[in-house]
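Entry 12.
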Amino acid sequence: MKEIENNVFEIEKVDIKQKFTERLSNTNKGDYGYVGIMGGCLEYSGAIKLANLSLSALRAGCGVVRIIIPKGIAKIVAPYIVEQTLYTIDDENDKMVFHEQQIKDSLDKIKALAIGMGWGKSDQYEKILSYILQEYSIPIVIDADGLNTLARMNKDIIKHTNCKVILTPHVKEFERLSKINIEDIKDNTIAIAKEFAKREQVILLLKGPTTIVTDGEIVYLVKRGCPGMATAGSGDILSGIIVGLLGFQKPDTFTVATAAYINGLSGEIAQERYTDISMIASDTVRCIPDAIKKIRE
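Predicted 3D structure (C-alpha cells):
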C-alpha cells in the first residue's frame, strides 16, 4: 500500500487480494449475508436502476439481496427481479410511508442496508431513517435521496446511533451535508473530508476523480475509474457493491475502499469492452466478475 502522507494511503490491487480468497465448498448463502436495499418511488421507480444496484451487491459476493420498495411500484419493479427477493412497504402516492412493523419485517435477518436510491422526497423518509438509526445496529449505506433526507435532519442522530454509518456523496451532496462551500471543499478536499468524518463519526466516501474514503483517522485514496462511468446509475452500482461486501466483510473503512476499487476497476474493464461513449451502468455490473479475477491474479 502506497503511503502518500501520514495516514493517507493509495489503495492498490495487491492490497485487497486478501478480501477475495476462494470459498469453502461447505458454505451456503447465509454465510455471506442477507443485505437490504431500500428505495424507489413512482417518480423515480428506477426498476432497472434497482435491479442493477441489487445485482452489483450479488456480484460483490453477498448471499441474498432483499429489495425494499413501496407497494405501488412493485408491479413495475418485479419483472426485473430474478435472483433477488422483494419486500413491499405501504405507501401514499407511491412513496414509502413509515410503518414500524413493516420496517421491522423488511429488515429481518438483514446484515447491512443501503438506503435512499430513487427515493425522491418525502417527510416520511425522515421518520424511517430516524427509526432505523435509533433501533438498529447494522452497517447502513446512505446514498442519493437518503443523503438529501439526512441533510434536512439533525445530524446529531448519526453520532448516537449503534449503526455503522457510511455516507457516499458526490461533491454537491457533500456541500449540502457539510454546509461547506463547494469551492472550499475542492481546495482542501482530504482535510475537510477527514474532519467531517471524525466530527460526525461516520465513514465518508467522497466521490470524485480520486475517491476519498475516511473515518477521520485513516484516509484511503482510490484512483480507479474512467470517463465512461459518467452515466446514469453509476453511483448506485457503487452503493450496491459496498452493501454486498458488507454482507460478509468487516464494516470498516478498508472494506468501503475495497468496494470503491472494485467499482472503478469494473468500470475500466467495461469501458475497454464497450467504449467510453457507449458503456452504461449495467456494463459495470457485468464486469465485476472480471475485476475480481484480476484482483485474484
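Annotation: The chain has a mean pLDDT of 95. DSSP finds 13 helices and 13 strands in the chain.
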